[in-house]
Amino acid sequence: MNDGRFPERFLWGTATAAHQVEGGNHANDWWAWEQVPGHIKNGDTSDPACEHFERFLADFDLLRSLHQTAHRFSVEWSRIEPAPGEFSSTALAHYREVLQALRDRGMEPLVTLHHFTNPTWIAQAGGWDAPETSEFFARFAARVVDELGTLARFWITINEPTVIAYQGYLRGDWPPGRRNLGAATRVLVNLLRGHWLAYERIKSRHADLQIGLAHHLRVFDPARLFMPQDRAVAAVFNRVFNETMLKSLRLGRLVFPLTRAGRASGPRQSQDFIGLNYYTRELVKFNRRYRAELFGERMLPAGAPRSDLNWELYPEGLYRTLRSLGREQLPIYVTENGIADGRDAWRPEYLLAHVSAMFRAIQAGSPVRGYFHWTCFDNFEWAEGYSAKFGLIACDPVTQERRPRPSARLYAQICRLNALPASVELLPAAPQPVEPAGPVDQK
Ligand code: FCB
User: What is the pTM of this model?
Assistant: First the structure.
């Protein structure tokens, strides 16, 4: 570490999700959602995305040539189990080939079992607001791991439970488009239960596999540092958004406010590692009119550098978040971190600053074992369609041409050296909160 290198066998890769890159996923709730005008920017749909379902071999060749040593991807539930209890051997064979292709290239796979999409039959039966979905998910998860578990050591049950609840059930911008706090809370409980059931089943048969979730953690700072109301609201946001799930998982029982939505319990410590998705921070200002948002108006610091989606570039937040995860006493993988930047104007700096923040956290004692940049190819970015370009590699959804951006080369250097390039000075910490400049483009 002292020579500026990351620990040995540190994993360097990129992350994707099936629906965002594969194309041809027509049997899930997102596809149905995309067909309704107004749901997705510019009327985009997830077809053909990156045609990765057909092109995965060449895509992995490209990532390997860029010195990546690992890859995170998700399997698509609706392909594998198109009808309740009917498992498709063709779909399972496909993902076996995907895993084998990674292995053949010496890339460590990290597989996500649920990344936002649900089979149509699950959505029709009430989605994650229906308690039976937890059980259906666990059955699916156990089956996939039984079939493919010998090819991958690292498994993520669910990607970003809080984002699912927030976007789909509170803001209503994603399927099923509801706005109901009670439903959002029930959904979180059912997701937790789904993880617990899946964890128990997988572990009982494959004790050596490493199981975790990918948590979207954001830094919330008070908009006005010395204003007690702002501090209180920021503390509530941190608690609800960043701590509730982790604490429930640590204890094996629901903690407030989840306790309001029912009863559920599971094994204590049901994560073998923490998957961290970190992108940005937000400032929170107390505002009486924002009742539905727990009285917090979310803002950006004036003059702060921003992404195409208006997210603040705040690398110090990765350091702070990694340090705060010390209480979990578990290995950490940064399972997502990246920026929407079609011109690649900020991405090189974003990348260097975040990798150096991670390096500092490791030096300070954080057990970080890998980093997966979001993402390799520009892809279908949910409600933003193809307009938000997160790729190290540009991907044209019409021609399917892949064009590595300068930051792809920079990342390749980092992966190859297992260190920050020597010519790069560590960037100083970002400035502290200043007066808010305006509303955030929220996710
Ligand atoms: C994360 C999601 C991922 C992608 C990035 C930009 O919250 O997990 O699918 O949308 O944000």
Answer: 0.95
